[in-house]
Write a structure and sequence with these properties.
By secondary structure, the chain is α+β, with helices and mostly antiparallel strands. Helix content is 49%, strand content 9%. A 5-stranded mixed sheet has the order 1-2-3-8-5. It has a 3-stranded antiparallel sheet with strand order 4-10-9. It has a two-stranded antiparallel ribbon with strand order 6-7. β6 and β7 form a beta hairpin.
Length: 405
């Protein structure tokens, strides 16, 4: 039986931007699956409809078919007001995520080359130094907020180190990005981030170093300053919010799930096992990988209209009963980093940063406990991310670790 478009559905669209959705998205995904099957009608913000893909096999099909599901949003964007809160996360940008054909290949080759130049051994040392310094700032207190005092500043400092970004420019870019993810003050955040990253691109033209930004401006693709800024914006988007939220979400699992709570800290299960479980069950970038069909497409008996957003729910697809086996360890078939031509090229770097950050924290403070019941933790609203507002923990007071900076 063929059905009409989810975007044009006459019934209610499920809002993905509310506090209720943020509090328990998995309940909403289950309800969507029961009511709609693999494709559900949603709103990304008030008045912005989209199709959410919640079936794993359907998502893989779409992600591997850029010819019919390109990521260029310019036709859709024509009907979207400039003050739309999700526009900065979805609009056309000259980067590998929002272009097609030769443009995408050019931008992606520059990004892959720049990221590929990261020295993983040096990165490990940078993470260790920064993490020890941060742990020393709160270990004597016996309590901390893992998000605000550890995950966020650690990811910020590590990313700025990889990009060769001065802290002042990095702070401006990070504040702008957070507003874009939260879709609150998104337009202003987008502008603030753009200004900071354009300054960084121009700085590295005259003061190059051994960093990602310098490799971008030197790449044979001959990116302009504006094109370099756009690649940096993508790297900031992928390199700050998702990793910091992955640290917090993974630690939350370790502290609350009996499968891990009694085993991770005594060595029965590794940090990587917990990390893989979160990437599968509760990924930090929950809904993204957006495409805009060139023409009406019939998928799973549903017509998807041309030029309207099709959003992949990595969180819902990973939990699709059609593929969820219940296995815990070594199960890495998740979509958390995307698949196909737009798969994330920074996956090894991101995993190293998050795993090292968790290992450093757990090695230094193994007897950590939640400071509040898990039910009292709050999640940041927004259609794209899965992000805790804070993660307060307590632990026995301890002396500072040697090292750090």
């Amino acid at each position: 039986m063929v059905h009409g478009s989810p975007v044009d559905a006459s019934g209610p669209h499920i809002p993905l931007y509310t506090e209720d959705f943020a509090a328990d998205p998995h309940r909403v995904y289950r309800d969507m699956r029961r009511r709609f099957g693999s494709l559900a009608p949603v709103e990304l913000s008030p008045g912005v409809p989209a199709t959410l893909v919640i079936g794993y096999h359907t998502a893989v099909r779409i992600l591997n078919d850029p010819e019919h599901f390109p990521a260029d949003p310019r036709m859709w964007q024509r009907g979207i007001p400039d003050d739309c809160p999700v526009l900065p996360m979805m609009e056309y940008r000259p980067n590998p995520l929002r272009t097609v054909g030769n443009d995408r290949l050019r931008y992606r080759s520059a990004a892959v080359s720049a990221i590929g130049g990261v020295d993983m051994h040096e990165l490990h040392a940078v993470i260790e130094e920064i993490s020890i310094s941060l742990i020393n700032s709160f270990c004597v207190d016996g309590h901390c907020d893992v998000v605000g005092q550890y995950a966020s500043p650690l990811i910020f400092a590590v990313l700025n180190s990889m990009l060769g970004c001065p802290p002042e420019l990095g702070h401006r870019a990070a504040r702008g990005l957070a507003a874009m993810f939260d879709t609150v003050g998104a337009a202003e955040g987008n502008a603030a981030q753009a200004d900071a990253l354009l300054e960084l691109a121009r700085l590295k033209r005259v003061q190059p170093g051994s960093d990602i930004t310098s490799r971008l401006v030197r790449h044979h693709a001959q990116l302009t300053d504006e094109e370099t800024r756009q690649q940096l914006a993508l790297l900031y988007g992928a390199g700050t919010e998702p990793p910091q939220n992955l640290i917090a979400n993974t630690l939350l699992l370790m502290l609350t799930d009996e499968r891990f709570a009694a085993t991770v800290l005594d060595g029965s299960l590794s940090t990587r096992d917990a990390l893989d479980e979160v990437l599968f069950s509760d990924p930090p970038l929950a809904n993204y990988c957006i495409s805009y069909p060139r023409q009406p497409m019939l998928i799973d008996g549903i017509w998807l209209p041309a030029h309207q957003p099709v959003v992949i729910s990595m969180a819902a697809c990973n939990n699709d009963p059609a593929i969820k086996s219940g296995g815990l360890t070594d199960n890495r078939s998740h979509l958390a980093f995307g698949v196909g031509p737009h798969g994330c090229p920074a996956r090894p770097v991101a995993l190293l940063i998050v795993q090292d950050a968790l290992d450093q924290l757990l090695d230094a403070i193994p007897e950590m406990e939640l400071a509040v019941p898990a039910s009292e933790l709050r999640w940041r609203p927004g259609p794209f991310h899965r992000a805790l507002v804070s993660l307060p923990v307590t632990f026995p007071e301890s002396r500072p670790i040697r090292g750090g900076r």
